[in-house]
Here is the input.
Amino acid sequence: MSMSFFATDRLLFTSESVTEGHPDKLCDQVSDAVLDELLRQDPGSRVACETATTTGTVMVLGEITTHGYVDLQKLVRNVVKDIGYTDADYGFDFQTCGVISAIKPQSPEIAQGVDHALESREGKEPDELGAGDQGMMFGFAVDETPELMPLPITLAHRVAKKLADVRKRGQLPWLRPDGKSQVTVEYAHGRPVRVNSVIVAAQHDPGVPYTTLHDDVVEAVIRPAVGELIDAKTGFIVNGTGAFTIGGPMGDAGLTGRKIIVDTYGGYARHGGGAFSGKDATKVDRSASYAARYVAKNVVAAGLAKRCEVQVAYVIGVAHPVSLNVETFGTGAVPDERIKSLIAEHFDFRPGAIIERFQLRRPIFRQIAAYGHFGRPELDLPWERTDMADRVRDFAPRGVTAVR
Here is the structure.
């Protein structure tokens, strides 16, 4: 994001999120559920699993090499059931949906770049594990929230998650699984000062009066999720077209990896070239994005910058990144080049080292396939820890204090 963002007197910035019942997010969760189950059986599984859905159908496709086995029919139906598609009246449900599989092994030309180091988990050096693909990845942190995430996407996730929570608890029993949120935050001189508007699209049963729908969502979902940044001028829009009864795969097709901005920073920071869900950690699209977030968060937590964006890039089969860039948008307590040097000295971006540091051969991924891969303090994600902040801060000038 350019420096003009921070110099502007007043600016509105908007981010969106979606519930776990959104068809794209349903696909992300199926893909990560497949990944988790295979990692549970064989931590060395190579997985690039895509899912697509439309009316009455879920298709799982991609490249998988593993010693494990997944009953795809059972797994997909369990995910669909957990999300809440349990009634045929929704036009899509776990009992009647068709499940199609189109899985093949990983390409040997891709595998050869990393297979020579598959045994790294058995004691070999992490530098022997080459990147599973080329590409560039970004990580970002900002001191706007305790999670060091941008406020708009943090609030959008809270609203979407609250929408699902009140449905699952039966507080608003007429809600259905699909839904979206959108939060616009007003900034003054680069700092958030209020919420300008909140938009919710909530799938619901037929026959719910619009006034009931609007008022209940505002009081049970929006106000508890957004809190004190709402003021008398904040606008609320619930179901802009009035009714939203046809949703989920019945209303729209879904595909893994189509909500990458929801998964990361809500458009506030840049995103790399690839999605996360359904990919094992040899795919640097996923693992290096987590590592870059970890580094950026520790830089901000150490007080070296108020905003930090880290970019790395890889070539397939090579362990070390081909580039590393750091941008603090004029907020750094020390020059960006100095921060870059500290990062290069104290953080290891080799895929094997990332996998080892974050223990990414564990089945931990389905839980982050909805409501964001970053932030999430309730989950204690290893790439969200700030355990390197003290070490990084030791190299800062006197007077620099950590973000707590």
In short: Residues 23-41 form the longest helix (19 residues). The first strand starts at residue 10 and ends at 18. Residues 116-125 have pLDDT under 50 and may be disordered.
